[in-house]
Design brief:
35% helix; alpha+beta; Heterokaryon incompatibility domain-containing protein; HET; 20 strands; nine-stranded mixed sheet; 23 helices; HetReg/Transcr_Mod
Amino acid sequence: MAPNIYEPLDLPHETRILTILPGNDDEEIVCKLSNMKFASCEAYEALSYCWGRSVARELDLDTEVLIRDVSQPIPDLHSEPAILQEFLELHMRPVAVKDLLGTESEYIYIRFGGPLPSGKIVCNDSELTVGGELFRALRYIRDDETPRRIWIDAVCINQDDLQERAELVKIMGQIYQNASMVRVWLGDTTGEEHKLGQTLRGLQEIFTDCGESSDDKETLAQRKKLFQSHPEWKSINWYALADFFDRAWFERIWVVQELANAKNAIIQIGRYLIHWDAMEKVIALLRHYGGNDHIPHTSGFERANEVRRLRETRQSGRLVSEAELPSKLNALREFKSTMPMDKIYGLLGLMDPAISIEVNYAKSAESLFTDLAVRYLQHGCMDMLYYCSELHQPTSLSLPSWVPDWTRQRWTRPFLMRGLPSHATGDTRFQPSVDPDGQTIRLRGRLLDKILLVNDQAEIPVDQFEPYNRTVHGDAQAHRRYTVKVEQRRMRDALEQSVRLAWPNSDRFTWEKYENMWRTFICNRLIDDSIPTEDYGYAWELFMGMLRWQTANKDEAKSGCYYEEVVPVDTTGLREQQKQTKGEAGLLRYGGAHTRWCYNRRFFISSAERYGWAVDGTKAGDIVAVLYGCPYPFLLRESSDGSYKILGDCYIHGLMDGEALEGAFEEKEFMIS
């Protein structure tokens, strides 16, 4: 940015506003930048957009696609094959996607995630170069008759002034909250927007007919059945929704507070406009009816739903409290930021001012994350330790294992967030001490066991698939059927391998181990948090049999051998006794509990032959310990210097309700680095 366009600001009482002067599409973009006091109550909009590319894909731009000569009419698809072949040879030509920029087929380039070139605008009589996405947005949002007053971070903040940037970041929430409209720029068109409009209208018809109110008495399965029985359901274009949620805006951390603080918001794609309130309603109802399951690669949808929930909270007048902050940071891990420290700074506009985090871009992300962890631990909030990520996940930061890396993706959701009832250390309390080097903490606890075997054949994450390609995978519903089948097969293989680890032969089988196994498979809690009664052993076998039936190959289906070999002994008599009380309802409760508690975890057997569930990356030789003040056991890995690394939380059967405090287990100080 040219420094001569910036007048000093009276912070925190004023900001700058960009006035875009009227003009036609092909005319130069001319703007005025001026200071504005918040007390003036002058109306303005605020722009929320992604600085880089507009579509969250990084496909090979050297890929060649067939482009039609637009001067030639398309032949009837029912024409003779020879006519169609002649048309393809004469009037269709292969072109590299990168060469489509600036052509009539540019939408294909954008759909591939191609970045737009920067552009020049005139601001306060000076020429400025702005990023490609912003330049394209300015062309579309400029009015041809009246000036448009709008706040845009890239222009209204002097990006070269770190102190000014830090001060404006503190009041970013206020800037978006005071705007008359927040304009969400998702990018230029990809050629699919008309299909999105048809899909949104179709969904609205379904929701109107099915009812938009939540009924707690209905199960999700019942709501799904109602949704999918509607005649309009088969016409829903799920990949149009996938393309919409694939926009890069949905993965940017700053958009969370920008939208959550907005009084009014509108989504813009090229010249297409969608009111955020309408889209928010669609997101909520898709979740309610389970329709989001049919959107291929739904991470964008899940991020959009997280934004919706936070906006709902903010619009009710609530801010994120100090106690809630760690769980919010964990929930927003999948959102990205160019600078790691923005994973925290980007949420300041949603936080209770009492949290009081200093914005300092001269401070490293490592120092920021460590200081935050120390702050919580020294106030007795041991829960912070459960947000520490699996160490094998890639990261650009160098942090102690007891400091959560908020930039690191995490497949396993902590038991703390899943709500698994546990009191492994009873009512004990302990305040850790931090060594002078700031890299090591000391805690007291008990050493419980050591990992002997881990089911490392389970695929984690269970729901990870190659990117959806409608040419390869067919329509979105066909792709959904395929992914469900694969997930079920992966679950079956993982669980059967777990049983084989526990009972490689009948000599290792006992009825006590049988009960420990089926209880471990649901962390000894049903989906309603209750402890299962003894007759749920039949529900476990039914659950395993159901997985075999759902994923049976031709030979298995022909023989009907779905229930055999779950355990290496005959349990027919037991099943006859238990199935009197546990049928389909027991199966659903058992299966739901397994998914809720054990998703993306690895089964393990300890040296003392206890069963449990670990985070991905756990190895034989890792230890299980409880740390005073922490309700769930931890997996730790010993280093050569005698210190330990935190791998994550775990479930270990029989030691979740205070049994660890008995004298049989060694009490010691743990040095965590």
